[in-house]
Amino acid sequence: MAEDKSKHFSRIIDSGISANHSAGLYELLQPIDDASHTRDRKRSPPDSACTRGTRVEVVKKVTAWTADNISAADEPHILWMHGYVGSGKSAVSQEVCDTSERQDRPVASFFFFRNAGDRSKIWRLATTLASQMADMIPETEPFVRAAVKAKPALLRQDEAGISLQSRMRCLVYAPFKAAVQRGTGLRASTRLGGPSEEGSTTLAALARGPFLIVLDGLDECDNKDEVQELIDGMFTFFDDNPFIPLRVFITSRVEQHIQSHLDVPGVRLDNLVDHCSDEDIATFLDVLFKNETRRNPVIRAYISEHGEWPSPKDRQKLVKHIGGSFIFASTVFKFIMSTAESGSSATPMDRLPLALKMNPGLDGLYAQTMARSEHLPHSPDIISTIALLEVPLPMSGIAELLGISTYEVVNVLVNLQAIIQVPGTDDIPVTLFHTSLRDFLTTQSRSGRFFAHPRQHVRLFLRCLQCELVHRQHEVESLTNRSQRKPAAVYALQNSAAHLNRGSDLFESTEFDCAIQLCRETLGLYPDAPELIQSLGRVTFHRARRTGSLVDLEETISLNREALELRPSLHPDRSLSLNNLGNALQDRYRHTRIVADLEEAISLQREALELRPPPHPERSLTLNNLASALRDSYQCTRTVADLEEAISLQREALELRSSPHPDHAILLRNLTISLHDMCEAMHTPPYLQEAILHCEELLTSHYLVGHEYRPETLNRLASLHQKRSGGTEQSH
């Protein structure tokens, strides 16, 4: 069939049949001017380009492939580079196109862009590529004209008339093949099924390498069925013509309709995430800051007085905060350098610290993507679980933890691959492409109906207990080895406590009852297991805090003493038992005011802290617990040394849990309370200033939005300001 069409094409040309020569090919095809790499990027997004010194290796790798001649029948003609939003796909595409032009190799391109009229549709792709091809390879023009003469409907700018495969075949593939056949000196009917006997083509445009077609942002095209048709048509053409000197470079996010057709043998795959480096982001920011410094007299004056800005430490923080996303880097930089709003005197130096706490610009995209799966069963639970998990789980682990089927998890996630990394195998965890997505999902004011409510921690904790019970039952019944634990069971053992802590204020009484019942059932299977004794003690402790029950508190203390006895001095989890028992004794002191309980609590927390030297992951928690006990001691004895030590410990804890860590706000609040107490005890300006700064930071935190602690913090800040100004009025 391919041979017959090629003969037909040649006969049209050789007999002198041509399309309307009174009109230029450009006017005939009416390509989309702003879809190619030569567009004015300032007017026609994406305004993406590789900053000098960035993306060097990945661009070099792609251009080497595009320039290499086809030498084997099974060599891939298609390279698909995928990556998450903001990873720089369009910038790489632009640089590949520009590099090809600089090296005098022919390239045609189409940059899809959502909500940009015809650039988000596929129907003018063939005419646009054909127009560019004729400019690069003039020998193709008469064949394009012949195709239009034979089928005028090829010029339609909508879906009516002729299929996409026919448009691409008639306007791009067949004209290019015919021109190449003529250039080899062979008969037009010769099938490009093997190397030419006469050597390489004599087409001047192909002297330095194959013709390259670049399709950027294929996921931005609205016509999903036609995208698949486009890919299928490429395979058909390349299968029929394995040595044709044509390569196609495609970039997109990972979307199911694209992945299902391109993640196949015969396509070369590359993940741009593998090429995202902090060094590239640092180089990108260096160029931006240098250019802005030359233009901005305020920055130059600041540098003249204070030295380098941003400082190396702040640059490093900014690079880490950005996390490999060029679009995020660009958005953050624009925020830092934005013109001060009316009534604001903020300078770029003032905005830099704020930029380290913000993730602007991606919320709309996240919401748009999330909407694709919100109608599916279990979608809110699945998304909230991924956002709130302490460590990522594979899809089967998520399903087991939630008590649903794996296929239901897959069904939700296949639509979200632009922002969530969905692995192809079940031994790899599901991860978020960027940490800003977790911030979005856990901030109700930003995510709205997609908010991952903290109540989900309660469900996750109960599910952890259920998974643990089921696994322990299987161990008893079938003597299952612990090394055979499923991912959800391993997760439950290691992380259930974190979900209990994060959701403890949100439990209903019946949920506490259910949790205690599950713990007692599991402990009944292994009565001497310290981790199970400890698990029951945690739940009774949190219920005691909610209800004020001394009965629960007494049981908690008894359970924790039992667990501690089973964990002697060299046991790796002894510090955990010390910590838990210390907390329970401190709570009983607050009920009974028995000083011996507080003294023992302080002693236990000191021992726990010694067992958790830096960089122990739980050191911050123990620092905070010891500080809390010392502050209680200060309230009891008014010994300022206790309060000074508490503040020192809280400062260290806060430094170990910098924003946006979920514990940062509560640690900041605790330090603010201690500093306020110190200001009440003695008027010390440094403590006063530090307390005011921390109160102001706390009030900007999402943690206090709608929280009962907000009025308390406002009152504390007012009191501190009055102390600084010498005021004596009470704050209300």
Automatic annotation (TrEMBL):
Domain Nephrocystin 3-like N-terminal per the UniProt entry, residue ranges: 72-156, 207-253
Xref: Pfam families: NPHP3_N, TPR_10
Organism: Candolleomyces eurysporus
Keyword presence, Chaperone: no
Keywords: Repeat
Stated name of the protein: Nephrocystin 3-like N-terminal domain-containing protein
Coiled coil feature spans: none
PANTHER family per UniProt: AMELOGENIN, NACHT DOMAIN-CONTAINING PROTEIN
Classification via InterPro entries: NPHP3-like_N, P-loop_NTPase, TPR-like_helical_dom_sf
Signal peptide, first to last residue: none
